[in-house]
Amino acid sequence: MYSRLPLILCYHAVSSSWDSELAVAEEQLERQLSLLRGQGYVGLTFAGSERARLAGRLPKRSVVVTFDDGFASTLRARPVLDRAGFPGTVFVATDFVDSGDPLSFIGDAADSAPPDELAPLAWSELVELRDLGWEIGSHTATHPLLPKLGASELRSELERSRRAIEERLGSCDILAYPYGVADERVAAAAADARYLAACTLTGAHRIDEPFRRSRVGIYRGDSGLRARAKLSPVGQRLRRTALAERAEARRAGREMPILERE
Ligand SMILES: [Zn+2]
């Protein structure tokens, strides 16, 4: 089995003025990505990393920089990723794109947010990002908690969002589950909906599960040594070990899936 995996980072909004765990400042993002670049990481999109992995061509150190939800502020990451030489991957809740409706599904963080910070991306902006080599994936249509949905609603969320992106951007191969969670039924539905791969934000599962790739969530509080620990190869190995143990406990039925921060 080809066991090498990319480091997949999960960001949300990008803002130096919005004091929320969901918003990293540009300078913070810049420091984190230049740290990885200095360690020899090669940047890939999520589907790019899956394809490279299937072909046995995944670089020894590869990083996938993802942004969830489709905040308009994702555009602030563009020059930062350009400087690092990494492409971005953005997962959008398709009903919100172009709607002008605030991304209020983020929970308590929305209450204190300046209204501008909750603005969604537009399709024209996603086209620009795609043309720059970014990848656009589905974060479902309405951002529900998927394990709670019945079969037909689940299918509709996965298929409708994929079609919306295909119609506007030509293709949609990847998915990030809202709130980062997917049980086995949801992961199987993602495979049925013809995605190539999908990612969670919860602890990892089995070593090679393309429909439940785990990500490292990076938040505003992750600076200095804490960010360095999350981004270091040793920190990642420790994290994977802890996650594997947690997954093991879950398989043994001792623990329910943990709902992490959005
Ligand atoms: Zn989300």
Helix and strand succession? EEEHEHEHEHHEHEHEEHH
The secondary-structure class comes to alpha/beta
Share of residues in strands: 5-15%
Low-confidence stretches: 253-262
The separation of the N and C termini measures 32 Å
Radius of gyration: 17 Å
Mean pLDDT: 89
Helix content: 25-40%
Q: How is this structure best described in words?
A:
- The two termini are 32 Å apart.
- The strands form three sheets. Strands 1, 4, 5, 6, 7 and 10 form a six-stranded parallel sheet that branches. A two-stranded parallel sheet has the order 2-3.
- 37% of the residues lie in helices and 14% in strands.
- The protein has 262 residues and is α/β, with parallel strands linked by helices.
- The protein has helices at residues 26-38, 46-54, 77-84, 108-111, 123-131, 151-169, 184-192, 224-231, 233-251; strands at residues 7-11, 13-14, 23-24, 42-43, 62-69, 88-92, 135-138, 174-176, 197-199, 216-217.
- β8 (174-176), α7 and β9 form a beta-alpha-beta unit.
- It binds zinc ion.
- Zinc ion binds next to β5.
Keywords:
single chain, 262 residues, 6-stranded parallel sheet, two-stranded parallel sheet, 9 helices, 37% helix, binds zinc ion
Q: How do the helices and strands line up, and which of them pair or pack?
A:
Elements lengths: L6 E5 L1 E2 L8 E2 L1 H13 L3 E2 L2 H9 L7 E8 L7 H8 L3 E5 L15 H4 L11 H9 L3 E4 L12 H19 L4 E3 L7 H9 L4 E3 L16 E2 L6 H8 L1 H19 L11
Parallel strand pairs: 1-5, 1-10, 2-3, 4-5, 5-6, 6-7, 8-9
Helix pairs in contact: 1-3, 8-9
Quick structural summary:
With 262 residues, the protein is of the alpha/beta class. The chain is built from nine helices and ten strands.
